[in-house]
Structure to design on (239 residues):
C-alpha cells in the first residue's frame, strides 16, 4: 500500500488480517492513527509508516494493538511529540524515528520499551540531552543521535559526552555543535563541559532556590500570625 496517497484510514481496515506479518504504508499522506486503525494485527512483526505526515507518536494507537511487533519505522515524518502513557505488554526491538522534528521528550518513553535494542533518533531537532532523557536511553544497546543541532554551551553537555563514550559514532561530522556561534561545526567531544559553572548552577537550582522559597513562605506565615490579633481586635471593637 505504498504511495497510494492515503490520507484517512477509517474504522479498522485490517481487523481480519491477524496473520499478516508485514504492513507497509510508506509514502502516503497519513496524518495520524487512532485506536481502531491497527486493530486486529496481532501477528504483525513489521510496520512501515515512513514518509507520511505524522506529527505525534502515540503508543496507545500504535504499540499497544500490535502485540507481536518487532520493527517500527516512523522515519521521515513531522513528529514532534512522543507519548507512551502506560507500561507496554510488548515492545519493538527496532524503532526508527530519524528525520523528524523531535526536540525533546518527557520520560519514561523508551525505557518502557523493554525489548528495544536499536533506536535511531538521528536528523531531528534535539539540542540537549537532559538528565531524564539520558536515563531514558540507558540499557538500549544501539542508539543513534547523529546529525542533531547540538547546544555545546548547555550544562547538559556532559550527558552528551557520556553518551558518545558509550555509543561509538561511525560517521564524520555527525556529532557537531550548532551553538554557540564561536563553536559552530566543532565536534561535540572537543568542547569542554563547563563543570564548575554548571555544578554551581545546579546546586543553586536544587538547593538554594527551594531554600529561599521556604524562608519566604515561613516569613509570610509568621507575619500573618502577628497580624491576626490586631485584625481580631479591630473586628471586635468596630461598631
Amino acid at each position: 500500500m505504498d504511495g497510494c496517497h492515503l490520507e484517512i484510514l477509517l474504522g479498522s481496515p485490517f481487523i481480519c488480517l491477524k496473520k499478516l506479518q508485514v504492513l507497509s504504508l510508506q509514502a502516503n499522506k497519513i496524518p495520524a492513527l487512532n485506536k481502531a486503525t491497527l486493530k486486529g494485527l496481532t501477528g504483525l512483526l513489521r510496520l512501515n509508516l515512513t514518509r507520511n505526515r505524522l506529527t505525534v507518536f502515540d503508543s496507545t494507537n500504535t504499540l499497544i494493538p500490535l502485540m507481536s511487533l518487532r520493527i517500527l519505522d516512523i522515519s521521515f515524518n513531522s513528529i514532534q511529540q512522543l507519548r507512551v502513557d502506560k507500561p507496554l505488554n510488548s515492545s519493538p526491538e527496532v524503532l526508527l524515528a530519524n528525520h523528524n522534528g523531535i526536540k525533546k521528550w518527557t520520560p519514561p518513553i523508551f525505557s518502557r520499551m523493554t525489548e528495544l535494542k536499536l533506536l535511531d533518533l538521528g536528523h531531528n531537532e534535539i539540542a540537549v540531552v537532559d538528565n531524564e532523557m539520558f536515563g531514558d536511553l540507558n540499557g538500549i544497546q544501539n542508539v543513534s543521535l547523529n546529525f542533531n543541532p547540538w547546544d555545546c554551551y548547555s550544562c547538559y553537555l556532559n550527558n552528551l559526552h557520556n553518551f558518545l563514550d558509550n555509543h561509538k559514532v561511525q560517521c564524520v561530522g555527525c556529532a557537531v555543535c550548532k551553538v554557540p556561534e564561536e563553536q559552530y561545526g566543532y565536534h561535540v567531544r572537543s568542547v569542554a563541559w563547563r563543570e564548575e559553572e554548571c555544578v554551581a548552577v545546579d546546586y543553586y537550582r536544587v538547593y538554594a532556590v527551594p531554600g529561599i522559597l521556604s524562608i519566604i513562605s515561613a516569613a509570610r506565615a509568621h507575619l500573618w500570625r502577628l497580624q491576626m490579633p490586631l485584625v481580631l481586635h479591630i473586628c471586635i471593637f468596630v461598631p
